[in-house]
């Protein structure tokens, strides 16, 4: 087994795959390492999710993404990225998480759960979907509290509180309501987010208006118990009978991993990683960032469609400094 490469790519999501395609096309030896399954974050998206982007905007490597729908679904995306990886025979090690990266004689040693590798260049394309943003309230660790939502049937005939007003929260509220759940939304802001998909936003607003889905705006869940939740509202504290809390409060990159490999983060709440937007190289020589991990806590700034170009930027930067 080869253990030395020109480039090691950490993360086999859409952008990690795009980086692998670009590296292979340029003639570099490369390896993609992924702690879970192929496009692990997409796999863990809600089963019925529909992308905001059209299919051509999330294509990678010049490979057409063909769908009969205006907006592709999660299942179509899984099929597309799997076919891209297989048809291009990309070198990917799945279920092999990277534990650490450190410099060794002008190269980097990459230590995984299974092996050690050496590479001249590292591309970090780890996304942000694996670590949920906590509520930091009593009862959050109860089994009834979910930070991820998969599908609605499980919640049928249950009293469900959905925390948040983003796309994922709205989808969870509508889908569980339509499977027979008694749904209450708790929204920190004054309204449903304007980032919610334009064909979904009127639906949830009308369901709230007619009372099919209850909603408390300018409000926060402050405590969770086995069969109750406490909500602080503008009208005061209320207690609801409750079976499940779907707390879709957002996700964040693995900042500890970034810091441990030497990448500097901004001192403000956004924790933006330090990198050159022209080359995507970080403050660590020959370590690059690609994809949504570049946004720090501002996880809405990067998507597949506006970060897929990172792959070519990085490989072009490497080519300028390396003779193959």
Protein model, in words:
23% of the residues lie in helices and 24% in strands. The chain has 324 residues and is of the alpha/beta class. It folds into two domains: 4-131 and 251-321, FAD/NAD(P)-binding domain, CATH 3.50.50.60; 134-247, 3-Layer(bba) Sandwich (FAD/NAD(P)-binding domain), CATH 3.50.50. α1 (14-26) packs parallel to α8 (310-321). The longest helix has 14 residues, at 74-87. The mean pLDDT is 95.
Domains, number: 2
> What is the strand tally?
17
Contiguous runs where pLDDT drops below 50 for at least 5 residues: none
Helix content: 10-25%
Question: Helices, strands, pairings?
Answer:
Elements: E1 4-10, H1 14-26, E2 30-33, H2 40-43, H3 74-87, E3 92-93, E4 98-104, E5 107-112, E6 116-124, E7 131-132, E8 145-146, E9 159-163, H4 167-178, E10 182-186, H5 201-210, E11 214-216, E12 220-224, E13 228-233, E14 236-241, E15 244-247, E16 251-252, H6 255-260, E17 287-289, H7 304-307, H8 310-321
Parallel strand pairs: 1-2, 1-6, 2-3, 6-17, 8-15, 9-10, 9-15, 10-11
Antiparallel strand pairs: 4-5, 5-6, 7-16, 12-13, 13-14
């Amino acid at each position: 087994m080869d253990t030395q490469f020109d480039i090691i790519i950490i993360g086999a999501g859409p952008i990690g795959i795009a980086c692998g395609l670009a590296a292979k096309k340029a003639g570099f030896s490369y390896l993609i390492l992924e702690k879970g399954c192929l496009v692990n974050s997409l796999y863990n998206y809600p089963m019925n999710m529909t992308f905001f982007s059209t299919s051509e905007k999330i294509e990678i490597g010049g490979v057409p993404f063909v769908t009969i729908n205006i907006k592709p679904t999660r299942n179509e995306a899984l099929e597309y990225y799997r076919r891209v990886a297989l048809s291009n025979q990309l070198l990917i090690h799945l279920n092999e998480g990277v534990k650490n990266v450190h410099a060794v004689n002008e190269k980097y040693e990459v230590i995984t759960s299974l092996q050690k590798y050496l590479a001249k260049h590292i591309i970090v394309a780890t996304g942000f979907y694996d670590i949920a943003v906590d509520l930091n309230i009593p009862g959050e660790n109860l089994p009834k509290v979910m930070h991820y939502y998969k599908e609605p049937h499980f919640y049928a005939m249950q009293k469900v509180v959905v925390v948040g007003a983003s796309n994922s929260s709205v989808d969870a509220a509508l889908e569980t309501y339509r499977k027979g759940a008694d749904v209450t939304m708790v929204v920190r802001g004054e309204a449903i987010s304007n980032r919610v998909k334009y064909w979904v936003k009127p639906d949830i607003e009308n369901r709230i208006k007619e009372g099919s889905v209850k909603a408390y705006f300018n409000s926060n869940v402050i405590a969770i118990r086995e069969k109750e939740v406490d909500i602080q509202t503008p009208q005061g504290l209320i207690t609801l009978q409750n079976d499940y809390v779907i707390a879709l409060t957002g996700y964040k990159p693995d900042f500890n991993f970034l810091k441990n490999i030497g990448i500097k983060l901004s001192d403000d709440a956004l924790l933006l990683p330090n990198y050159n937007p022209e080359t995507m190289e970080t403050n660590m020589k020959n370590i690059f960032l690609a994809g949504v991990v570049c946004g720090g806590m501002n996880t809405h700034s990067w998507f597949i469609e506006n970060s897929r170009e990172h792959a070519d930027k990085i490989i072009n930067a490497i080519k300028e400094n390396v003779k193959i």
